[in-house]
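Record 1 of the preview.
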Amino acid sequence: MSIKINSTANFISQGYTILIGIAITPLYLQYLGAEAYGLVGFFALMQAWLNLLDLGLSPTLGRQVAYARGQKNGFEFFKRLLKSFELIFIVLALVIIAGIYLASDWVAQVWIKADTLDLSTLIYCIGLMGVMIGLRWFAGLYRSGINGMEDQVWLSAANIVLISFKFIGALILLAFITQDIRHFLEYQLVIGALEVLLFMWRFYSQLPATENSPDLAAFDWQAVKSVAPFALGIAYTAGIWILITQTDKLILSGILSLAEFGYFSLVALVAGGITALSGPISQAIMPRMTLLLSQGKQDEMLSIYRQASQIVAVISLSVSLMIGLYAEPLIYAWTGNKEAAAWGYKVLIWFALGNGVLAINAFQYYLQSAFGQLRLHVIGSSISALIQVPVIYYAAVNYAAEGAGIAWFSFRLVWFLWWTPIVHRRFVPGFHLSWILKDILPIVVITVGVALGLSNLVMLDLTQNRLLLFLQMLGLGLLMLTISAFSAKSIRDRIFKRLKR
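->
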């Protein structure tokens, strides 16, 4: 399957996920209330932190699938590895479910600051979260395998169906049956179980036949050991990454009231959508980059790298600047809640800009993953955590959510400017200067210029109709994206090529 088709399918799926979240999340806030929605945000936080126990197995499996496709009899080894990973996940899932159940009473009484939700409801909901997290681990494992097979059109279609059940089905539940947060989470648990079964079936159906098949409960220590350095490298850096990206949220979950944390969860959802926009491209290019390098085609790999980074730069910078400069009207048009807009806009602007930089910065990791050498990534992540975590902690404790946002953006920008050239120099000497000057800088200059020009020319009024306000911002965003797109050489070349035809 071509990268273009996979990227398109991934964008459709990711775009649908973002749009349906944008459309329905305010209704969750309306039906559940700020406190109960804050509990949903707390679940997302728990899931992020407990992904530490994935131990890098899911991304490792995805890479091994891509590698096996380029090798003769590569799937003989892969199937032994898959069975071993599944057994590890079963043990980890049982441990985490039990651990969350035992800790639920303390979390409900000591950490969460609820005013209206009773203690028994909090404890029950936290217990449900543990089961859902265990299920999502398995879904992530098989999802990575399907992605590594480049079966991304099917994966995108399945994601659309599942997201529809998760969001639209839950909305129907809240609107017509019950607005109890317990029933909401029980429904999500059922959909999570169906997701695991669906992805497992698809992944196994795509695996080619081999002469020897491992036993159902076979654990191959040698297979696991052979990929352990790569997996542990990912696990370590994933842990560091969670420290970097989730420390502020963890601290704020204990500082803010549950209602305020609900507002912050809205901010985090919008800002997270920026990095999610780059996800479809990374899903499409990482298996292909790995495959090309396994075949010795480095020039082709770098061509894909440059084109993809230009596209991500255009999209992420345009969206982050649009969100940041029009943060208050965006939150109000989205939720209809002026309190949420007044609380969140000073926070959203910084997280949006920081995530725009983050999406571009991720490319140096894609390069290291394709080469299968994460030593430098481990070193860089460690240095990053040692500096940023104390800074974020200080900013969050002393200046709350806005301070955490400013610290987040500032560090992401400095880190991109300092660390990316080091990675490029290590893997592709002489590449970085050309990449930054020809591929990235023109996009940054033009996009920032267009954004500042539009924000000074067009002032949005919060007293007008919310739909009209949203349509105005949508039009401004499309205009900014269209103009900025011409700053990317790969996009210009494609447009001129089509015009000539």
